[in-house]
Amino acid sequence: MEKEKGTFERIYDVVCEIPYGKVATYGQIAELAGNKRWARVVGYALHANPDPDHIPCYRVVNRMGETSRAFAFGGKDRQIELLEAEGVMFVQGRVDMDRFQWRKIAF
Fold first, then answer.
1. Of 30, 33, 42, 57, which is the active-site residue?
2. Which of left, alpha, beta for 82 (phi over 0: left; psi -120 to 50: alpha)?
3. Is the pTM of this model over 0.85?
């Protein structure tokens, strides 16, 4: 019998699905990981990311398209740099969510 994945592992699995050049919101990740009320838990999980080279937590922004002020892997400016390097564009300091938000439907 296979052991059920923990909350953080489920969150990391969803974050790993975000395509190059796209972003997702904390709430979106929470819903896809199994509970739409886990948005804060998503933030905690990303801050504790055990493998930032393979779990692209920089692709997660708030619902307004704003990057994290407390980005744990190089600061807020680093998150912006990583997103811009993937072609993600910002309008007035926010990700252009109409163009760059990942659209995956939860089942």
1. 57
2. alpha
3. yes
